Amino acid sequence: MTNTVGSAITREADAVLFLQAGPEIAVAASKTFVAQVTTLIVLAAGIGRIRGTLPEDEERELAGALRRLPEAAQRALDSAAGASELARRYVNSRGFMFVGRGYGYPAALEGALKLKEISYLHAEGYAAGELKHGPISLLDAECPLVAVATRSSVYEKLISNVMEGRARDAKVIAVATEGDEQIERFADDVCWVPDTHEALSPILAVIPLQLFAYHTAVARGTDVDQPRNLAKSVTVE
User: Taking the model in full, what pTM does it have?
Assistant: First the structure.
C-alpha cells in the first residue's frame, strides 16, 4: 500500500494498492496516513463481504459513512481552528502521553508520532488499558494526557483512564465527538470531531492531533516540513 507509483516496493510486491492521495511534500506524512486507514477499512469491508462476516445492514451503514467522510473531515478541520492557541498553552510541557482504546488506539499512536517527529517533544502513545501497567508513573502536572475519547463501545472505560490521569494532576486534552455532554467534566481542553461510524473514527480523530503537532512545532520554531534526522524514504534496513 503506497502513494508513489513506480516506487521500488511496488516492483517487489505481489499486489499493490495505490492511495492516490496526491504528492506528500512534507517528510512527516499526514494525508497519506488518513488515506491508508481509509483504504484499509475499504479492503477489510471487501474481505468481510466475500467471507460473509460483514452483515448487509452494517455494510450499508459503513458505505454511507464513507461517502460522508469528506464533509465530516472538513468539519473536523473547521472545528480545529483553535489548535494554535492550544499548542501555545502546552508548548512548554515536559512530555505528552497519548492514549486510546479500540479504534482510538492507532489515532493516539499517530498523534504521538507526529508530535515527536516535528516538534522534538517527547510523546508516547499507549493503549489506555495499559496505563496502570507502568506508563501512568509519567503523568503529573508537567505531562499532559491526550485522550482519544470519541464515541465508541469502550467510551466509559476510556473515561475511567482519563480520571486516573486527572488524579495524578495531569492536564487532559480530549478528542471527543460533537454532542458529548459529559466529556468537559473530565477534560481541561476538548477538540471536537463529527460523529461517524466507529471504524472510521480514527480518521477524524487524528485531524486535530496532527494540527496540534503542527502548531506546537511552529511555536517551537522547528522545521515542520523537513524535521531533523528524518528522510522521505528509508533506504537502509
Answer: 0.92
